[in-house]
């Protein structure tokens, strides 16, 4: 090889060069660790929040107002219904007391217990229905008045142990004192009645029926239970 063919000596191949044996590209050095005491937080100011980050949303005054309104309504509405129901119940009780004081009758069905004790099973669908109960030491009586139809009358008489054949035309079995006690007017019209006697303490009944309106008889009953002395 001639002198002209010899490649030029570079720093990489020159053994006398300070950078001999090293590659031309230097490897980047690792970053320095953060300063500060061992095990503690890094020194220096904390990183500033990014521009896109925002603080937690705070409830608006409108939302707080709506929440308070909903809570108020949840408490106030049921309380209002209770007050209204109590007022209606009181008014209903007062009207019934006034009605009973004037005529002695309540515009309602006797309770199931009363119907069973006095053997006065008011037919289903009877309307209007009135009743009054009189209690004493040795005797209690249930006064009942109701309008029904022919079917209701026949079934009522059958339930208490009698029939329409037992009704005597023109006979009013309820006494004047009994009628006056509850304000019944049993004068005039087409009447028929019967009486059922039973041994104490079973109830005895005076039954009087008005037939002025065909197909809509009105039944008047006084059922009395006597107690042994």
TrEMBL record:
The reply to whether Membrane figures as a keyword in the UniProt entry is yes
The entry's keywords: Membrane, Transmembrane, Transmembrane helix
- Residues annotated as region Disordered? 1-59, 88-107
Q: Where are the transmembrane segments?
A: 65-84
Q: Where is the composition biased (Pro residues)?
A: 30-49
Q: Where along the chain is composition biased (Basic and acidic residues)?
A: 88-99
Q: Which domain of life is it from?
A: Bacteria
Q: What is this protein called?
A: Sugar kinase
Q: What is the lineage of its organism?
A: Bacteria, Bacillati, Actinomycetota, Actinomycetes, Kitasatosporales
